[in-house]
Amino acid sequence: MELIEALDRELRRLDEQSLRRRRRTADTPCAPRVQVDGRAMLAFCSNDYLGLAAHPRLVEALREGATRYGVGSGGSHLISGHSRAHELLEERLAAFLAPNLEAARAMYFSTGYMANVGVLTALADRDADIFSESLNHASLIDGARMSRANVKVYPHADLRLLEDGLAASTAKTKLVVTDSVFSMDGDLAPLPDLLALCERHGAWLVVDDAHGFGVLGTHGRGALEHFGLRSPYLIYIGTLGKAAGVGGAFVAAHATVIDWLLQRARPYIYTTASAPALAHALLASLDLIDGEEGRMRRMRLQALRAQFHNSLALRRWKLLPSHTAIQPVVIGPNDEALKAAAALHEQGFWVPAIRPPTVPVGTARLRVTLSAAHTAEEVTQLAEALNRLERMN
Ligand SMILES: *Cc1c(COP(=O)(O)O)cnc(C)c1O
């Protein structure tokens, strides 16, 4: 069939450019030591930054949630699927974020992708201007496109060009949209300066804290706590499938913003509410994040990060200067990055190679992610394997 043949040709082209993506199948829970496609591996690739994804207390809370609420929600939030567990989770998140947001209210979405698309399409329309950071996550890019707003991409962390754009904008609604921790580089957006710009120019600041929530800040409240920010101009998105170890995401903002999202965010309105048991498990996760155990795990993650930096001795490859759990080693060409990932795999390390279009052409990299569940010994093993590999190439 001709249509199939055309797709096959495209797939072969991806093969030729080392761009064809494949999945590996894990047989064990998300943890540093995993069984993948039947092989024991040491994983440095999950976003389970605090090591909570298989925490016994969360497993128990999920079981308890299923017993109490059943499995399926049976409907969308606005019809019949909004359960007490969802409601309690939103109240808990709002209370948690209250130090950083005025009149804080929170709304739980099934995924971060949906939360980002929901926020941007609900707040921006054809007449709005969206100022989007150039390294933003795909879900923010898609949300901006779907809103049909006038999208202006500003270069990474370039506040001067952003300020010019904001000053020149005559749109009634202006949004500045940014990741807080850039997912492929691990660096932080200059949020205090961005917020000052937004307040000066009457623009919303939409912050996607997928990699900061749970990890940054003394209490794990994320990037806003890290920088000590508080403002009604902030619209904060945290995902709950990364450090929180479960799944879903939330938007926290001024209560009026949340009320508006409830009316207009299509990825929230036109989808079945996620299993209430997940929300129940997330309450237990927030207890951990907010408590002593969370604090210990955040400190441990920082210690491992410092150790990884100190154990690496690279000449051509480049470890990006990241202060988060995301520790990218930039290699350059796609095939060399793939070869490095394959060689690591041979040695039992699971580290993904990230290639264009996820990162700019010529900056293919190994994306090492650390977790509080790693041991110091495991981190040293990886650093030494990388040192050896680079010299062999
Ligand atoms: C993972 C991620 C998302 C998407 O969140 P999901 O809950 O996985 O859909 C959004 N933004 C950023 C920056 C992310 O890293």
**Describe the biggest sheet?**
7 strands, mixed
Name the beta content range.
15-25%
In total, the number of domains comes to 2
The CATH first-level class of the largest domain comes to Alpha Beta
Structure, briefly:
By secondary structure, the chain is an alpha/beta fold. It has helices at 2-16, 56-69, 77-81, 84-97, 112-123, 138-147, 159-168, 191-201, 223-227, 255-264, 266-269, 276-290, 292-311, 334-346, 376-392, and strands at 33-36, 39-43, 104-109, 129-133, 150-154, 174-179, 204-208, 234-239, 249-254, 318-319, 326-332, 349-350, 353-354, 364-369.
Structure description:
This protein has a 7-stranded mixed beta sheet with strand order 3-9-8-7-6-4-5, with helices on both faces. It has a 4-stranded antiparallel beta sheet with strand order 10-11-14-13, with helices on one face. The radius of gyration is 21 Å and the shape is globular. The chain has 393 residues and is an alpha/beta fold. The protein contains 15 helices and 14 strands. The structure holds pyridoxal-5'-phosphate. Pyridoxal-5'-phosphate (PLP) binds next to α5.
